[in-house]
Amino acid sequence: MIFIQIYILIEEINTKNHIEEDRMNALKLVKLLKSMLVVCGIEFIILGLSFALFGILTICAVKKEFKLFYRENVCVLSFATIGLSVPLLCRGSENLLRVYFPEVININKNEW
Predict the structure, then answer these.
(1) What CA–CA distance (Å, rounded) separates 22 from 10?
(2) Residue 25 predicted with pLDDT over 80
(3) Do the domain assignments include residue 29?
(4) What is the rounded distance in angstroms from the CA atom of residue 95 to the CA atom of residue 90?
(5) Range of the domain at 72
(6) Rounded to an integer, what distance in angstroms lies between the CA atom of residue 14 and that of residue 11?
(7) Residue 15 neighbours by CB distance under 10 Å
(8) Are 78 and 60 contacting, i.e. CB atoms less than 8 angstroms apart?
(9) Is there a domain that residue 106 lies in?
(10) Is residue 22 part of a domain?
């Protein structure tokens, strides 16, 4: 639904010759894209936290039920949990920083 709205706004910007209407459509598009960044950021953070939670729960269950396997593979299990959760948390934080603190992350140059 959101992508259809974006497409319609882009088509309106491309087809109309009125400068004020183009400016208003561009502002609507920017507002829509910012709201999409917020939603995606929150979703990535929720996914990262869920990967961390279920990874820790899995490690605890393995430690309790399969002690020998746990001792042999504790590093692999820990790195897998960290490797799945940290990138998602970073991506979600980056998306939220782009909206709420644009001076921290320069959107135009994709620089930190």
Answers:
(1) 9
(2) no
(3) yes
(4) 9
(5) 2-100
(6) 5
(7) 8
(8) no
(9) no
(10) yes
pLDDT at 59 exceeding the cut of 80: yes
The dihedrals phi and psi of 111, each to the nearest 5 degrees, come to -115, 155
DSSP 3-state of 106: strand
In sequence order, which residues have a C-beta less than 8 Å from that of residue 21 and are 6 or more positions away? 12
Structure tokens at 23: 């400016």
| Residue at 110 is within a domain | no
Query: What pLDDT shows up at residue 6?
Result: 64
The pair of structure tokens assigned to 34 is 């910012």
Q: Is the pTM of this model over 0.85?
A: no
Quick: pLDDT tens for 77-111: 999 999 999 999 999 999 898 888 877 766 555 54
Q: Give the chain's domain count.
A: 1
Residue 9, pLDDT > 70, answer no
